[in-house]
Amino acid sequence: MTNRAESESQKAVSLTVASMLQNQRLQDKRIQRQVRQMQNSVVCALSMLLDLKDLRTGVHATRLAEWGVRVGEHLGLSREDLRDVENASLLHDIGKVGVPEEILNKRAPLTRDEYDLVKKHSEYGWAILRNIPYLENSSLLVLHHHERWDGKGYPGALRGEEIPLGARIVAVVDAFDAMLSTRCYREGLEMEEVLRRLRGAAGTQFDPQIVELFIRLSSEFDEIAGTASAAA
Hints:
Elements: H1 2-53, H2 55-74, H3 79-91, H4 101-104, H5 112-119, H6 121-129, H7 136-143, H8 165-180, H9 191-201, H10 208-217, H11 222-225, H12 228-231
Helix pairs in contact: 1-2, 2-3, 2-8, 3-7, 3-8, 6-7, 7-8, 8-9, 9-10
C-alpha cells in the first residue's frame, strides 16, 4: 500500500508540475504577444509622426517596407533581419522631423548649408531610434541608408560590404521610389528610366547584387509603382 501511495503521490506531483509548465508557456506566449503588439504600436506611432510632417513621406515609407521585405526574403534574411529592414524602411526618414519644412519643401535648388542640414536626417533618425531597445539594429540601417557602394556617401563614407546589408537594401528601394514619385520640385520619372538609372548606378552608388535582384523583381511592383506618382 505504501508503494502504491507513493506512486499516486508522484503522479500527482508530475501532473501538477506539467500543469505549471503548461501555464508558464501560455503566460510566456501572452507576454511575447503583448511585447510584439507594443513594438508594432511604437513603430506605427512614429510612422504617423512622419505622416504629420509630410503625408507623402509616410506613403513613401510604406511602399519601401513592402519592397524591402520582398528583396530581403529573396536574399534569405532571417525573420529578425527582415523585421529590421521593414522597420528601417518605415522609419528611414524619421530624422526629417529635425529639418525645417521650408527646406524640405523648397522648390529651388538647396544651398550648400541647406543640403548639409538635410543630410543630417540619417543621424537624427539614428539618434531617435537607438534609444528604443528593439530598434537598435534598425537604427543602424537608418544611419547608413545614404552610404554609397563606392564610399562616397554619408555619414560614415562606408564602402561595399562595410555598409550593413539592410541599409544597402533600403538605399535601393528608397532611390527607386524617390525617382518614380512626383515631388514639389520635380516630376516623377517613367519606370523604364528609373530602372535604367538604377542599372547605371550599380557598383558605384548601389550594391550591384541588390540592384540586379530588385530589377528582376520590379515586374511585381508595377501595379504599386504605378500609384507612386499619383500618391506622392
